[in-house]
Specification:
The chain is an all-alpha fold. The chain has one domain (52-292): Orthogonal Bundle (MetI-like fold). The chain is built from 13 helices and 2 strands; from the N terminus they run αββαααααααααααα. Strands 1-2 form a two-stranded antiparallel ribbon. Helix 4 (102-110) runs antiparallel to helix 8 and helix 12 (250-261) packs antiparallel against helix 13. It starts with 10 loop residues before the first helix and ends with a helix.
């Protein structure tokens, strides 16, 4: 005869019940409702018409959706191609043992990520102002041929957003790279240095393979965060998508469709397409990371 367990069989369910209830109420139920809503066309909060896959069919030929997707992809590419090398460079600089004031510099570079997105939008709105903005005034002082009336936010919205995101998130991603660099085997670096390897060879053949998993994770976070861009351009462009919808992102288009136009069904379809896209990106990144493991 087997001895009775020291605890009732229902004990695990009792302790996990709060999480399961909260997960079901605030995650599974809203997801199911949004999927049902994506199959409907809504006219205000009370009137709905079942359209099946009509929202998704319209999305495929919606020029505004693809315009928003191109803008968001351009921003994501800039975030990965500019922001991450800056973050890695800062981490390499602050990982030097002989650098004085390393703790102070780490705080300085990380501090912008503690500032709210709305506050950052207000700051860069002032920085990109015509004539009185610090960026135009500084460029005009350095180069007299620069037009101080240059309208950054009217002509080059996405580059302006990339500049703001580099200032905001480079220090945050620097922390990930710094943690990875501190786990690199110092004995391998010392042995390579003794064998005559230059700094670039040590970085390429020792450091990069060691920090590759963290780099892949940071790239994934940056891409997902880029495709969720909303607050920064919304505040920066004064609650709009800017002239010619140059600042329109996918999430901003979702917000305009659902809460300004009132078609929550089409907005749900946009949200599901975006969610599936990001799931695909995460899946590809996971497969690539698994393939790199020997």
């Amino acid at each position: 005869m087997k001895p009775a367990p020291p605890y009732p069989r229902w004990a695990p369910w009792f302790f996990t019940a709060p999480f399961l209830v909260l997960f079901g109420v605030f995650t599974l139920w809203p997801l199911a409702q949004s999927l049902v809503l994506a199959l409907q066309q809504t006219f205000g909060p009370k009137r709905t018409v079942f359209v099946g896959l009509g929202n998704f069919e319209f999305l495929l030929r919606d020029p505004l959706f693809w315009h928003a997707m191109r803008n968001t992809a351009f921003y994501a590419l800039g975030a990965v191609a500019i922001q991450l090398p800056v973050a890695l460079g800062l981490a390499l600089l602050l990982n030097r043992p002989k650098l004085r004031g390393r703790a102070c510099f780490r705080l300085i570079f990380f501090a912008p990520s503690l500032v709210g997105l709305v506050f950052v939008g207000v700051i860069f709105t002032l920085l990109f102002q015509k004539r009185t903005g610090l960026i135009n005034a500084g460029l005009h002082a350095l180069w007299r041929g620069w037009d101080p009336e240059f309208a950054w936010l009217d002509q080059h919205v996405m580059p302006a957003l990339i500049v703001a995101s580099v200032w905001l998130y480079a220090g945050f991603n620097m922390i990930y790279f710094l943690a990875a660099l501190q786990n690199v085997n110092r004995e391998l670096l010392d042995a390579a240095s003794i064998d005559g390897a230059d700094p670039w060879a040590r970085f390429r053949h020792i450091v990069m393979p060691e920090i590759r998993p963290v780099a892949g994770f940071v790239v994934l976070l940056s891409v997902i965060g880029s495709f969720q861009l909303f607050e920064l351009p919304w505040v920066l462009l004064n609650n709009s998508a800017g002239p010619g919808d140059r600042g329109l992102t996918v999430v901003m288009y979702l917000y305009q469709t659902g809460f300004l136009t009132g078609d929550l069904g089409y907005a749900s379809a946009i949200g599901w397409v975006l969610g599936l896209l990001l799931t695909g990106v995460a899946f590809v990144q996971a497969r690539l990371a698994r393939a790199e493991v020997p």
